[in-house]
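INPUT
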Amino acid sequence: MIALARKIGVYVITAWVAITVNFLLPRLMPGNPIQTMIGKLQGRVTPQMQKAIQLQFGMGLHQGLWSQYWSYWGQLFHGNLGQSITLSAPVSTVLGQTLPWTIGLLGVCTVISFVVGTLLGIALGWRRGSWLDGLLPVSTFFQAVPYFFLGTVLLLVFGSDLHWFPVLGNYQRGLTPGFNWAFLSSVVRYAELPGLTIVLSSIAGWMLGMRNMMVTTMDEDFVLVARAKGLPTRKVVTYAARNAILPSVANFSLAIGMVVSGALLVELVFNYPGVGNLLLQAVLEQDYPLLQGIFLVITLTVLAANLIADFVYVALDPRVRQEA
Amino acid sequence: MSAGHVVAPVTAGDGEVSRPAHQGDPVLEIRGLCVDYGWGEEAVHAVVDANLTLRRGQVLGLAGESGSGKSTLAYAATRLLREPGVITGGEVLFHSRPNAQSGPDAMAGSADLLDLNEGDLQRIRWSEISVVMQSALNALNPVATIGHQIEDVLKAHRPDLNRAGRIRRATELLEMVGITGDRLGSYPHELSGGMRQRAMIAMGLALEPQVVIMDEPTTALDVVTQREILEELVRLRDELGFAALFITHDLSLLIELADEIAVMYAGRLVERAGSESLFRAPRHPYTYGLLNSFPPMHGERKAMTGIAGSPPDLRSIPSGCAFHPRCLHAMDRCSVDVPELVPLSTGPLPHGSSPREVACWLHDPQSAEPVPEELNQPDPADPVSPEEEKA
Amino acid sequence: MTVHADDLAPLPAGQLTPTAPVKGKVSRAVRLPHSPKVIAGLIIIVAFAILTLVGPWVAPYAPNDNSFAQNLHPSAAHWLGTSNLGADIFSQLLNGARATMVVGFIAGLVATALSVIIGVTAGYIGGGTDEGLSLAANVFLAIPGLPLLIVIDSYLPASGRSNTLLIGVIISITGWAWGARVLRAQTLSVKRRDFVEAARIIGESRIRIMIFEVLPNLVAIVASSFLFTMLYAIGTYIALAYLGVTSTSVWNWGTMLYWAQNNNAPLTGAWWWFVPPGLCIALVGMGLALLNFGVDEFINPRLRAAGLSKKGMRKAGLPRHPKLGLTPVVRNRPTPTVAAGPAKVAR
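OUTPUT
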């Protein structure tokens, strides 16, 4: 349990770092980007919004850095992530609309990728030298391909040329959102190609990692003992796999960071209205409040995913459950 | 039928002896076993032409330095040798006599383990032949409880037991080796080294097998715990009557534990004799060297001799007798011809024992050289001749 | 001592310290790579390294030269056709190699240097230093790299965004944490070895021990970490370019993809615009990954493909990797001959 408490501590500190980075960056960067941004805004925003932006970025106020910092935190605790310039809406509202789409797509794809990749890795590690080994160079290639490039190729081949999948968007225009079959099936349909991209790109990592750990674990005595016990093969493989999976779970934090980054870009390719698209817009327009809000929310989501992975690790490995 | 109690032979006149049925019969016969690592020209011959007989109710010690092939022999005999091991010859005959405790997997009769298919092997594994390994920390699954690891054997081989029955049996087993039943739910890392080894022994005896192979079960423990475990093993052997193949590099452990001892060097068996005979009257120079490598607790202080040199790399074994470069009594013939393991005595033997054997040209009857005195001490197992008795 | 999950989880991809410790400078004979994977990887990387150096000179036209006809299909005059502005795509590709590879290399170098310094120091010094540095590593590991880089780079003035060196250094900020963690775990295990103890007792200064005793044993892992980080850096740089965060006037493969996407190349079927740069990225990535395999297999010999040697095996009917618990039995091989001797009768 102590291990978990430490992890939570790290995440809290990470969140604090992310927030502080958000606070400090605009104030430290040379070239006064905020001034430029406000200059562009003239006439487009109400005085209230301008004040809000100034508060967020500490412009035109005669407050010391520390008190600005406190106000910033105060804002955050009220759920106020600032105002998006381009969309003329609070960042939190905008994110609230787009985030579920990204989390939905990403969450499902990560689970599929992890499960299938791990199972393939177990098979590859257990049956070395079988035809399955052919998967290794193939998956290496897919691992090296950038997510969004793969998405582009798939879009071209399966979307434009073959018309097997719909392109662009997250559901068919004209359908009313809600828990009805037409809508839900349309959502799934439109998510297939982006989802396939994410799964194909990320599966290699899980597969290779699991395979290598299986090979290493099978050298351990307890796997030989399981065989010597005359246990059915399924059980022997379980003995090995339950131990071999631990590093995959432990390294989840690294993997999820890469998957998230990749997935954001895939959304761009398919015009999927998730956070990725929002990010692009924010970058193009230099909408700093939106940009910072996205960064913060992504960070917190990733931290939450890491926390879940850590809980799973503690459940899987009894050795960390007590202090050494 | 109570298994394993050794009843003192009742001699009447010409020595008609009554004993529990099958005691002393061979249960595992290894004949001419050859094991290589690798294939083709680079293959390393790890075990060459090994002949061993394990008898019911007896403990056979297998001693030798690291790399002598003792573990390789035992694992190859049970087909558990890891890659790149290949068995290139011989047979391993398992003469099975299932007792009342054997489960539904029991097979009666003899079979060559090297010819069995996977299914048959799986059935007799653990239920008839089990293995206790060296380091319990490595041999126990770190993410499963002890109870679970005992129960899965029961689940696999005793389908008649339900969950409650399995738990009961597992508790019984733990208590048999001196661990309280509440430890069923403990993980391996939560137990001390000695307890872990006991748990492994309990696991190994779960199905009351006919043969237990113990691969250096006490090497990883401190001396005090070692003693406890050994005593435990002797007690269990007396109670359950299994035959044990005890592998170790430490001959001193085998003094009280083993009935018979076989010594291996560079992949070959060089001597095999009853333990008393081996200790008091070793015949092979290597055995003699080993015995004089550890100081006795009692007796006069002697200078330790040890054995000069080091064990050969199996990839380049010396010609002839592999021990000749380190042997104080090496003759010319020793560097040319490989000595075969041959019996030394031809007289009648009590049931359940084999003639002692040695692989050394010094004991060749045609050899002109006399046998060195230290290798020719009177064998305590030899029947006392009437003349000597009178003297 | 509390047990951290990091400490227990074995290293990724089977990384272990080689068993024979290396004292002093690395003077072991360098084993030449046999594995076809490694050789393939080397060929790819060397080819692209050459491209990096000579690319802009070899290109037939200037990448910004918009004087040609627009949206041409690949032809003899323009091997990869032209963009919607009329620039030769092949030239863009050749020019783009330099920035991509250079940024990847710099980022990889800086990040690896950082991870070595931080990881080895944390592992060797221990105590409060270790706690602090480990915390820093964990924080940087937890923050998603790309979003952070996007935020940082967005604030950069235009001059900063076209500075490849600066971009490379900034990318390395997000890339050092993983290597640091791995190196720290390895340092902890090397620290316990006898020769390090001996050096300490003699009185060698801590820095000397870290550089000359510990580090040589970590060379393989540092190499693997560098390759992995360079892979990550290239991918990240491309992603940033694709988003348009970095300057779009600097030619790299990501920028090409940016322009292609913005002109709807996938929908118009102009594959010659975006497939070549993506393919190049994939090839470079694959080359680095293959080299990494080679290093992995060097570190952990178990991963090597070698099983029983092939000669005569198939004839005997043996599988390359026999099943666990089913040692193969092949009886037709001649056993070494044994000289027989009659038994000696016991006295």
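end of record. Chain B touches chain C through 46 residues (CB under 8 Å).
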